[in-house]
Amino acid sequence: MRKKNRPFLSRPLAKSLPVLIFFLFFTGLIALPALAERAIPSTMQAHTVTGTVLDAADGSPLPGVNISVKGTTIGTISNPNGHYSIDAPGEEAILSFSYVGYLSQEIPVNGRTVIDVQLEVDAQTFEEVVVIGYGTQKKINLSGAVDVVNAKAIENRPVSNVSQALQGLSPNLNITVGADGGEVGARMNMNIRGLGSINGGEPYILVDGIEQDLYKVNPADIESISVLKDAAASAIYGARAAFGVVLVTTKKGGSDGIKVNYSNNFSFTAPTIVPHSVNSLEFAEYFNEACRNSQVPLMFVPVIIDYMEQYQAGEIDYWTIPAPFNPQVWLSYNGAWANTDWYKESYKQWVPNNTHNLSVSGGNQNTQFYISGSTYNQDGLLRYGHDSHVRNTINTKVNTRVYDWLRFNLSSKFSRTNLSRPSYDKGSFYYNLSRQWPTNAPYYPDGNLAGEATQIWLEQGGMYDENQNEYIIVPGVEIEPLKGWTIYGNFRWKMNPSGYTNHEAKVYGTDAYGLYYLLPPGTNSFTMASYSSTYSSPNIYSTYQRQLGAHSFTIMAGYEQELYKYNWNSAKRYDLVSDDVPSIPTATGKQENDGGMGHSSTRSFFGRLNYSLKDKYLLELSARYDGSSRFPDNYRWGLFPSGSVAYIISKEDFWSPIHQAVNMLKVRASFGSLGNQDVENYLYVERLPFHTNSSWIMGDVRPNYVQMAGLVSPGITWEKVRTSNIGIDAGFLKNRLNFSFDYFIRNTLDMLGPAESYPVVLGTEVPKSNNANLKTTGFEVVVEWRDRIKEFSYSARFLLADATSTITSYYNPQKLLSGAFYEGARLGEIWGYTTVGLFESDEQAQNPSHDQSYLSPEIWRAGDVYYKDINQDGKIDIGTNTVDNPGDLSIIGNSTPRYTFSAILGASWKGFDFNMLWQGVGKRQLALDGSLFWGIVGNKWWNIGLEEHMDYWTEENTDAYWPRPYFEKWEDKNHQTQTRYLQNGAYLRLKSLQLGYTLPLSLTQKVKIQNLRIYLSGENLLTFTKLITVFDPELTGGSYGSGTMYPLQKVLSVGLNVTF
Amino acid sequence: MRRYIYIPVFCVFILCGSCTEDFLERYPLDELSPNEFFKSANDLKLYANSFYVLLPSHSGYGGGTFWSEGNSDNLVPAVPDMRLSGIRTIPSSGGGWEWGNIRQANYFLDHCYDQLAETLDAEIYIAEVKFFKAFLYFDLLKTFGDVPWFTHALDTDSPELFSPRESRTVVVDSIVACLDDAIDGLKLKNVSEPFRINKECAILLKARVCLYEGTWEKYHQGTAFGVSGRDGTEFLAMAASAAEQLMQLGSAGLDNSGPDNTVYWSLFNQLDYSANPEVLLWRKYDVGLEVTHNLGQYLPNAGGDIGITRSFADSYLCTDGQPISTSPLFGGYDSLALETRNRDPRMAQTFFLPGDLRTVNRPGGAEDLIFDKPPLDGTAQWRATTGYCLYKGVNIDYAQQESVGWMGSIVFRYAEALLIYAEALAELGTISQEDLDISVNLLRDRVGMVRLDLGNITVDPDWDFPGLSPVINEIRRERRVELAFENTRWDDLARWRAHHLIVNQRPGGVKYIGSNLEGTYFAIDGSGDPSIIVGENLYVDGEGFVDPYQILLPSGFGFNPERDYLSPIPSDELTLNSALIQNPGW
User: Fold this and answer.
1) Does the pLDDT of residue A8 top 50, yes or no?
2) CA proximity to B493, closest of B94, B54, B55, B75
3) DSSP secondary structure code for residue B296 in this structure
4) Which pTM was predicted?
5) How confident is the model over A128-187, as pLDDT tens digits?
């Protein structure tokens, strides 16, 4: 409340307070051993101050309080009796007292030699200033659902990006592994409170007020992150924020001298899980069994099996010979007898990476600056070929006050990311790896790379190099015409000039004569592509704040518009003269080029009113009026209002008797409406798709061709998102125990697409229209405990969240299960058969009263899956494939992650600090598929044999987990989605562990170092799950069957932080 | 008070800088709407280009179009065909019920005249699209029988979405009408742009469609698949006259360039058919343009987990014009050499025989590879299922075999018109020796085979169609032999209602026990161990012939003649459109 009447802008300054307290506290701890030592010599007359620090509430002495001289590196810590002694550099020095859980104080010495201090308990969690949309707010005055993640939680983590570090830090900020798995530079999926729309729905991410890619942000620059979850909190962002907002605030300079900070991290990464292949003998037997079952000739003949035995016994050292029927080619696959574990062969263990950050910050009362630079260097796991990720950032912020009423500020950010990997199609790589036979090896006996394996492509096929750049410049001005009235204006400008080069080299295989031959396509080429986007957005808003007795008002209104333009082009030339110099000028052959461009825009008016009565009754109303170019003229504008109320009961007089136990209690409720425009551009414009390079050659060219226009939606408009939220915040025992709870209902109305069910004779995709509704409900709970026992302080933060979504309206009148959705469907639900078990005998399997021939007309045998006849009609089928008549299908599980939880545990003692983050999913089912799950599936070239697959049914192993293996169409018998093979996708994972030690100030002061900390940390170190061990529980996706992705990594690292 | 001057200036600056009238009007910058297209002949041509890839041609892995007859009694793939086995099920979606390309054609026909400024040449491309519409509908007709006929591109509010199926007669009439338009609009091959549909292709397709429908009506008469009141005469006459029209044009003819003993084989393995009088349309491949196929890695190896049936091998007449059942020239089955001796010269040009070259021009001066015997002991892709290996389509040049090949793919060839002409007239009962001499006898002349003499046809006790006239039997035999592995056999079996050649039958292979092959297969390690153990990796029947499906299909193909001639409509479509009726038997 103290800063109430200060100009609005000064508020952000206050938000750095908790960080400062933390910092000073740690500095204080390390300084304890240095008590005996005196401060560094000073030209000024040293002035010793002594005193006692007491708890203002009960008068007890406070040990371990951090006392420092402002603007210097001089500091000390109070002893167990609360006494302290410090040598101030002069009589005009200012002493700063800080202690965790208490409000800090700054006291000018003013010539005194004894200063006794009483520190008041900080209602820290609630007095903390939180960044919200277009401003800041004290946490206690919030009426919407806002969570804050402190920079501390993401600092010094050996992660490749901010998203990875944020996982598990805020309840219902759900961050999951994306389509690229653990690849270098991979992106993660993010949502707030579950999937917001069947169209997707990512949160709006703003870094210092401008939309920015989190992958381009240096984690070390971050000061705090606010997660706006309900409509009331995010409504001010209107159409951009339908599914929540993440506000990232970066560090800025202080006004008390210059500070230099350097930190680094050296880490080592290894795959979390590597599937283990069986040896080739077991593999051959597995395949032969499937051949016997599928009634095709055996894949591996006895002579090859003999070779395998000899090879594995070390009697022979070659795994293939030239083929007798064509001595020019090596035998491979079922004609070879190597014993290769391909996953192990493909990925390295403990690959070194490093990070360095350097920042200089500081300033005076009028001007502050912050400059930082960072470099992150990651090497990938590929053993053949090479993949890497480098990110460099430079971040600058300057604020200056020209007059009392005029300030200028400028923020500029530069980020460059380089990704490099073999040009060989990565999808093919994961796919081929998931069907690679141990009987092949990467090298032929003559030492040449084998043409059958993808390794030769990774090694020789050329490289793909991508660079992604982001330049952001935001000049801004603040004008304060009257006390309490401020006008903010800025121009947000962002440019992403990026590009890639792709070299597809000629790959030469060798035959058994040692002669080289070209592998397909037999050509080489070089592609240079650039893509760039510009974003420009003028933005002006104004706030007016007024206190009238018990009434306090803040009004904010503003205008902004955004213009987004993009273009891309690529040039490709074939026939490189040399694959050693891949470039456009050194290519002599056919030339191809391509390109495109587009644009979109929005225009918005917004406003907010905050009213508080006696600081107890809080009301907030906001509205935004948005227009978007993505919708046709008459459907373009949307008004999105919201409102919230809160009541701080603990401020009532009647509360005082229990104030000691429950020092804060607030209830809040909100309702609001938001819009979602996150759909493709031009959906309402009929367009003819142009294509180049038809594969039907005409003359000597591959002609261009044009296809029909898809159906369009002339009346498409906003998706509307309405969220109701109720919440409770409470603090107990002087805020040592904090509790927060939110419950929400979010209705997403008029969702756009995907396609409704129409007869296929329509002949094209059904156009998107605003036709579907979705309801999501869930909750978030945060329980936090912080305390200290003498010099040992510790904290624990537990998070639990849940969100489930149900389709409340969708055009699928027959409720076809093959439709994308139907009314009443829960997102993620898994339809499947119920399994009784495996047939014990052929007679049982061929029982005519239990007809499974719909699944497969082949003869059913012992060891095949015995499905349950749920509808008791004597046969297993899908009925009419509708919800009302699903045959023997039923909902057997749901893949939505439920009860996501995490625990953040921290402790510190003297110079040591310890942090741990556990994260997990409480409930989730997964219906997995593909060769990594089933082993043998379908076509004989699409299979793998892993240790986990060996418990398959045979006459000798009738108690098996897996059914009888089959090739080709027979697999339909046993590989249906079913209860027996449904996986439990719940897990608990030690996401992060960090142990640090801050060197005593007495040592570091000698070299003018304020703070020196070394630490060990790790990521993904422990995982508990019931999932089949082939998979990482976070990595079960993949385009070519479950788990056909780049592995996630565990990390061990060591690092250093130093402040001068 | 300066601040009060700055503020309004600042605000005006910000607002004016951003207020342009149509800031939110953002139309595509790099895409065209129909209003900006369909103006010139070139626009229409660009659109017509999109259909060409739908034509059947070689692609990807495997034996290309030459392996397409695994769905018939000509070829034996490792896994028996589902339709022949009678084990297809009703899918919930897919299953060939695809309409995107039909809409693609209709969308064009809806818009092509909208704002056409130049009509010269435009008619050609409109004709092309009509050709493709007919081509696509013919596929639907063959798969499903009755289908709805759409005259324009549907929208989500089109009532036709829920319309019932049209009788196949209406569909075929509409297909023929499209083709007649196409024939009118298209130019002759010699004045058409190469690699594009020409008048000859459209006439041939018309003849093909009419023959199909004519024989379908005739032989399915009275069954659930028949068309009541129709016996096919009308369409057979149209087929004959269309074929005759093509024959009389004189713009196409047979490729007779080459000696009798290779002229047929070398028709199918050429890199460039531009100057070939017989090939009406072909697809070109080019390594430099990255359009290639992998045929060369499969066919010359003689394996491929596929093989020719004995029933097909037995179709070839002996050089005296008599069938093997009666001809004294037949050498028996004891070796491939004997079996093919004194047979129609096309047999040796279709089957791999011992001594045939497999690969020449190998790098490093390596010696040529020669076919020795069928790889009956191979596994997976190295295996020959029947021992009769495909030689038609083999290009023996190493360059075509090392990784990717660019041998051309024939789409339409003139010889089919001659066979249609003869068959239609034979079915109509009006065929004369003169008709035979301008049709099938030209095919026989080319390879030096004795002519078919209408008055002197040897009665074959093993005729496939003993109830039909000798000339129909012989013309059907001629068709099977000449068009072997060109993706016509299943269509022929279906329109002839020839399920007696399938039901409860198991395809056979070469003679193994007692032939010169027995006991000649040894393990690769030189140990002298046999690599074939009968009953384990090779199955033979009681007479010693290879019997590849002995275990898989103990009682032969389970083809259901009451059901399997047509495919089921996906069940979801029946649910979505209650006016759709499922095909018989499903």
Assistant:
1) no
2) B75
3) H
4) 0.79
5) 788 888 888 888 888 888 898 888 888 888 888 899 999 999 999 999 999 889 999 899
DSSP code at position A654: G
Give the model confidence (pLDDT) of A715-726 as tens digits: 888 889 999 999
Chain A interface test: which of B3, B15, B360 (most A C-beta within 10 Å): B3
Rama region for B278: left / alpha / beta (φ>0; ψ in -120 to 50; rest):
alpha
Peptide bond between residue A521 and the one before it cis (omega within 30 degrees of 0): yes
Query: What phi and psi, each to the nearest 5 degrees, are found at residue B231?
Result: -120, 5
What the block records as the tokens of B177 is 């009408």
- pLDDT tens digits for B391-433? 999 999 999 987 789 999 999 999 999 999 999 999 999 999 9
Q: Find the closest chain B residue to A516 by CA distance.
A: B363
Q: Are A165 and A154 in contact (CB under 8 A)?
A: yes
Paired tokens of A598: 């587009």
Q: How many whole angstroms separate alpha carbon A523 and alpha carbon A583? A: 15
DSSP states of A304-362? HHHHHHHHHTTS---S--EETTEEEEE--GGG------HHHHHB-SSEEEEEEEEEEEE
Cα A871 from Cα B33, distance rounded (Å): 52
Distance, in Å, from the CA atom of A283 to the CA atom of B264, rounded to the nearest integer, reads: 46
Q: Strands (DSSP E) along A483-590, which ranges?
A: 485-504, 508-510, 516-518, 525-548, 551-574
**What contacts A1010, CB < 8 A, 6 or more positions away?**
A27, A73, A259, A1001, A1004, A1059, A1060
Query: What amino acid is encoded at B170 in this protein?
Result: V
Structure tokens that stand for B525 in this block: 């390690």
> Can you tell me the distance from the alpha carbon of B478 to that of B442, in angstroms, rounded to the nearest whole number?
12
Nearest to A73 by CA among A1024, A1007, A906, A698: A1007
Are A990 and A900 in contact by the 8 Å Cβ rule? The answer is no
Contact status, residue A233 vs residue A145, Cβ threshold 8 Å: yes
C-alpha B5/C-alpha B199 separation (Å) is 80
Cβ–Cβ < 8 Å for B448, B344: no
- Identity of the residue numbered A95: L
Residue A908's DSSP bridge partners are A793, A913
Residue B233's H or E segment, with its range, is helix B233-249
User: Choosing among A560, A591, A688, which should be mutated to test the B contact, i.e. which has the most B CBs within 10 A?
Assistant: A688
Alpha-carbon span B130 to B122, nearest angstrom: 13
Mark which residues 196-255 of B lie under 8 Å from A by CB. Answer: 196
Instruction: State whether residue B159 sits within 8 Å of chain A by CB.
Output: no
A685: nearest CB among B15, B27, B79: B27
Contact status, residue B282 vs residue B191, Cβ threshold 8 Å: no
Q: What is the bridge-based pairing of β-strands A47-55 and A117-119?
A: parallel
Note whether A697 contacts B: Cβ–Cβ < 8 A.
yes
Average of pLDDT values for A103-120? Answer: 84
Residue with tokens 């759409």, as numbered in its chain: B150
What's residue B379's pLDDT? Answer: 79
* pLDDT confidence tier of residue B19, bands split at 50, 70 and 90: low
Could you read off the pLDDT of B318-361 as tens digits, one per residue?
999 999 999 999 999 999 999 999 999 999 999 999 999 999 99
Determine what percent of chain A is predicted with pLDDT higher than 90: 59
End-to-end CA distance of chain A, in Å?
34
Task: Judge whether B58 and B407 are in contact, CB under 8 Å.
Answer: yes
Cα–Cα distance, B466 to A291 (Å, whole number): 40
Question: Do residues A378 and A160 make contact, with C-beta atoms less than 8 angstroms apart?
Answer: yes
Asked if A636 and B24 come within 8 Å (Cβ–Cβ), the reply is: yes
Q: What are phi and psi of A725, to 5 degrees?
A: -145, 135
Q: What are phi and psi of B151, to 5 degrees?
A: -100, -10
Query: Is the pLDDT at A81 greater than 60, yes or no?
Result: yes
